[in-house]
Amino acid sequence: MHTLWRIISSPFKWSWRFLSFIRELILNLFLIAIIIVIILLYLHLHHITPKLTKGALVMNLAGIVVDKPAMHNKFRQFEHELLGSSRNLFQENSLFDVVDILRQAKNDANITGLVLLLKDFAGTDQASLQYIGKALREFRDNNKPIYAIGNNYSQAQYFLASYANKIYLTPQGSVDLHGIATNRFYYNSLLDKLKVNSHIFRVGTYKSVAEPFLRDNMSDAARDADGRWVGQLWQQYLNTAAANRQIMPQQLFPGAQTILAGLRAVSGDTAKFALNNKLVDEVASYSVIEEEMIKAFGWNKKNKSFNATNIYDYQLTSPPQRGGQIAVIFANGAIIDGPKTSGAAGGDHTADHIRNARLDPDIKAIILRVNSPGGSVSASELIRSELAATRDNGKPIVVSMSGMAASGGYWISTPANIIIASESTLTGSIGIFGMINTVENSLGSIGVHTDGVTTSPLADVSMTKTLPTEFAQMMQLNVENSYKNFITLVAQSRHKTLEEIDKIAQGRVWIGNDALKNGLVDNLGDFDDAVNKAAKLANLKEYQLNWYMDKPSLMDILLTQTSTSVYAMILALMQYWLPVPINQVSDLLHESLGFNWNDPKNCYAVCLSCGQKQ
Question: Is the pTM of this model over 0.85?
Answer without folding.
Answer: no
